Every structure is written in structure tokens, then in C-alpha cells.
Amino acid sequence: MIHDVLADEAGGHVRRSDVLTGGVSIARNLNLWLTSDGPAVTVERLPGAAAFPPAEVSARLFTLAHGQIGRYRANFRFRFTQCACDPSWYYEDWVVHVSNGRVAHDRFLHGEPDLDVDKRVHLYGGPGRRGTR
What is the pLDDT of residues 19-35, one digit of tens each? Predict the structure, then answer.
């Protein structure tokens, strides 16, 4: 299941949300690759179309044992078009929770994850930016 929440400037920052279901393959919509190794699930970030930070190879984020929750945080800068002559950008800030198996709803949304990967960066190549927990 993916719970996609969007609040963009063009829409007046009005929150819209969609819930998508359909099995492990829907994680690919987020450039995530999930693989099962017995009772464990490994989560990897696949290369994407972000202008920054560049992602040219996949990266392992974490491996979850049954009942564990992992959180992946990242931010990205994208071009509106693929043409280098267009200086228009848009930005995304992600918080992705992944669980291996069923967990309590309140723990999934509000509890601390078992594993936390924070890949947020300064979007113009300066020193890295880390948020607080």
C-alpha cells in the first residue's frame, strides 16, 4: 500500500492524498525495489530522474525483519522539462515508511521506526542538511 500525500504550490498547498494498492510492484512507482529473503525484506532505492542529488546506481536502504518498520527520508530537485534551456525546477520532500508484515496502525504512522535512513541533502550541492527526529 502507498499513501501518497501532495501539497503543492500550484494547488495553494491544499493537501490531497491517494491510497494505492497492488502488491510489491507498486513500490517501483517510488523508485524502490523490495526483495524478500525468507522472513526478511530488503528495501533499495533505484536510480531516478532527479536533477539533484544524482542517483546513478541503486542503493540498499535497509533490511527489515518480520514486524519491523523502516523510514526513508529524502529530498530531490527536478527539472520541469528535460531541456537544459528551461531553468524551472520543482522539489519533493519524501518520508517513506515500509513495514515487513502487519503492524499496528498508530505505530506505523506515529511510532519510531526500527531503522531510519535520512538521505536529505542541500539541493544546490552545498553541505548536507539533516533534519531533526
Answer: 777 777 888 878 889 99
